[in-house]
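note to self: dont lose this again. the chain is below, predicted strucutre after it. 375 aa total, dont forget to put it in the shared folder this time
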Amino acid sequence: MTLIDNYIEKLLTQSTPEKPLWNIEAIHQGKAPAWNYVDGCMMTSLLSLYRQTKDEKYYRFVESFIDYYVLEDGTLRGYEQSTYNLDDICESRVLFDLYDRTKQEKYNKAIELTYRHILRQPRTKEGSFWHKLIYPHQVWLDGLFMAQPFYTRYETLRNQQKNYDDILNHFKVVRKHMYSEQDQLYYHGYDASKTAFWADKKTGLSKNFWLRATGWYVVSIVDVIDYLDNSYPARKDFFYPLLKEAIDGLLTYQDKKSNLFYQVINQPNEPKNYLESSGSALIAYAILKGVRLGALDLSYQAIGQAIFNGIVDMYISDNDGDLNMKGICLVSGLGPDHNLRRDGSVAYYLSEPIVENDAKGVGPFIMAYTEMKMI
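---
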């Protein structure tokens, strides 16, 4: 495990809030620093590592990093609620930890700012959040990870669980519309209006099963389980079997040699398809945490460990002490209407850049590592 600890140390020492080594997308696009889900993944993973190791350097790094983005009045650097982007909610889940420890009012205000976003987010007729304002009526698997853990944590800690049933409904709608009984997998996107160029005109579904979207989804389930009060009946009655069903479906497509999963999950024979590390890390984390929480039985633990070790063997490289995580799809999405390239086809998913050290892979990898250390 020393190799991984050294890799994490490299990421921290070579990153600042303005220029984190792991936010490859922002670096490529020359974006100004802004509140975002990529940093959110990294901060969430480091807080998990802090809780597991009790090493203060991880907490100090997170507090220093977040402090740069949370202004004194509780507003968030680069955040614009008017875009109604679910991705922007993701990072706010760490604010609860910082407020609990520091009692700084700006963190409290930022939590409430994010919750007001939740309350105002546009919805489909069945109650699902739109993924973003530029994606009207669209539900993406990724969106459940972006919004529901924060939403659940808020309801548990600050709102007497009043909207638990609303949270439950988000998952019920996704299971109803986006799960393929035949393939035992979830489609990446669903357009409730059935008008998006990438959507099937009868079902509203996108065409394929993208690994990382499914990874975000299974992590959203296990993180919501973690934040729900134990007394809520659906925690065990609905979310436990929902997680098991999704994981069991994924495992039927697992590569037996590497223990990893393909970028387009069910197309292993597609010539350009590849074993992708970020989605595999998300699945490893969801399985290991699911076992720890009791949502999955102990037999799954060895499966999660094998996936994690497969990522280390295939994608953690050591060149004379310079450590890197490879095999990470930079980004994938559906549309919007002016971006016809993002059509949900197999060719599209296999055309996006493959990068190293991006937090969409590194964050889940560290989260899985934390779970490995708890065994």
